[in-house]
Amino acid sequence: MKLSFLGAARQVTGSMYLLELEEDYRILIDCGSDLERSNGQTAPTVTHPGFFPFEASSINLVLLTHAHIDHSGNLPNLYREGYEGQILCTEPTFALTNVLLKDAASLNQKRINDLNASKKQRVKDRQIQMQKDLFLDRQVRESMENVVPIAFNRKFRVADGVDVTFIPAGHLLGAAHILINVVENGERKSICFSGDIGRKNYPLLVDPASIPPVDYLICESTYGNRLHDSQSTPEDVLADVIQRTCIDTPGRLIIPSFSVGRTQSLLYTLNRLYTERNFPPIRVFSDSPMAFESSKIYTQYVRMLNQEAKVFFEDNEALFDFENFQFLESSQASKAVSNYNEPCIIISSSGMVQGGRVEYHVAENISNPYATILIIGYCAEGTLGWRLLNGQQTLSIKGKDHQVRANIEKIDVFSGHGDRNDLVSFVSMQSPETLKSVFLVHGEYESMESFRDTLAEAGYPQVVIPKKGESFEL
């Protein structure tokens, strides 16, 4: 069999891997959007005029590790290009992916409408190109109609001599490691795609589960060169920030946060602080319609959360609803928060402070010395979040310059990715004597190089860092 790395190779986003078996059976594992700027890699050779470096109609099956857009975001384009098969994933991944893709389609439609309103020819030309590249709601519906939900830890036969198993990965509700067993020419081969590896004791989510011995391991490496900053609990870290920014000094706490996964962990932690630690009832606003929809899905699948969350839900009958908490549904309600003069916490997307309603809240508070902007996750280079973290003193937001007088802080206790130690633990489930290769993906190249050295010291010399478009015979 042949494995090709078509995305998230020597970069973080755009996860997409093609596994080609005998008798022309082709499995695509993840089909994510590339959210980063070009990093100078040579793109895979395109032998046809389509969106992908392969004929979409030649794919027999798609396996989806989890819902995040850098793993799922090009599924509608796959159907638009001619794919007619099924998507296998867990039930929560199906539900969350539907929310994420519908939101992306809505944004795509808005971009096309804005370009349609222009009378400039160069903009018209761009609009024609965008209509070729951007999927809309119809393609999302077609994708979701072809999803087949798969239970965790149950072997599922997909073809003669081929079975797949979805194993809990933590990281996000429904996220999975995908184990594929293949029998070719009488020889049994096994390969595991890590997806994104979660961390232990993360709010709401189960710990990553063990995987059995495999021949080949495709392992993410986002935190391959570093450890998480704090070993304290999310409750302790968030309590300290709120105490300093909203209680000791009455002020505003702005938390840019991804709507799916990160916001639910935040709201659950805040609920526990108010319920179990008797925190003052500071007003909390969650400003993201997609976070609202995602939170309903988390509640729907509470049985798939960790034991602590299930007990909390039984005792309190809610994961995310607490005193002085409000979801802001309309844009008018979002802007009206600017007139709220008491200490408050505003949670809004996106987590990188790039697009979404959070840009408005940052613009309104960036020059306020009594405001704090708390970055709680990764920010890609060039985003507003990245510029805030790098100490830029003047920021342009929607064409207007703002002086940075607010306090800028960063914590990573809410990162859903396991750190270097977690990644080493994941690989260490495999015997160095029987594991044939480890392929590192989904990380910055420096992180991959560092993690490769760490694994070599741990007794795993068989580590490969594939380039985008590179293929390997397994």
Automatic annotation (TrEMBL):
Residues 263-388 form the Beta-Casp domain. It comes from the Bacteria. Transmembrane segments: none annotated. Keywords: Hydrolase. Residues 13-241 form the Metallo-beta-lactamase domain. The keyword Cell membrane does not apply. Pfam families: Beta-Casp (PF10996), Lactamase_B (PF00753), RMMBL (PF07521). GO terms for molecular function: hydrolase activity; RNA endonuclease activity. PANTHER family: CLEAVAGE AND POLYADENYLATION SPECIFICITY FACTOR FAMILY MEMBER, INTEGRATOR COMPLEX SUBUNIT 11. This is MBL fold metallo-hydrolase. The lineage of its organism: Bacteria, Pseudomonadati, Bacteroidota, Cytophagia, Cytophagales.
